[in-house]
Amino acid sequence: MKRFVEMNKMLINIGLLVFLIFTIVSGLLIQIKYHIGMHSENIMDKSVISFDYYDWSCFHKISIVPLFVLIVFHISLNWKWFRTVISKRLFNKNRQVITLTLIFVLVAITGFVPWIIDLAEGNEMTRKRLIEFHDKIAIILSIYFILHIMKRLKWYLTSIEKMSKNTATRGRNA
Predict the structure, then answer these.
(1) CA dihedral defined by 73, 75, 76, 82, rounded to 10 degrees?
(2) Using CA atoms, how far apart are residues 116 and 84, in angstroms rounded to an integer?
């Protein structure tokens, strides 16, 4: 059972890494190429690697959905840790992860609410303001994600090594 949980954690973390890279790259590309200083140009006509604004926006949105689902799984797998931190008030010792979690929630809200506003044909100015705020705090979130991954890099590498050894051992014993 423990091996199954560790395998699931590793698969979720690999998925998180892949979709995190997709989301960060597409989000930064959208900000840099299409949002920053492009108010006077027709941004829809510009393309990057043969993708225009609409393509990158779709790619970003599509990568966000599995990233969000994987983060929910990641948090649920680590829920015991969250409960311990909260119940024992270990906030200072775990400031980086708590901050990461709070910023993630804020980025998710400011990212998903504009979709809802757009689908409901709501106030376009509110939608754009939320997107602008989302763009700024997503950069901070990206930095926290990178720090979070770097802090756990040894665990990732050790887990991959253990899984490789277990697979090789099972292959010889079969």
Answers:
(1) 180
(2) 35
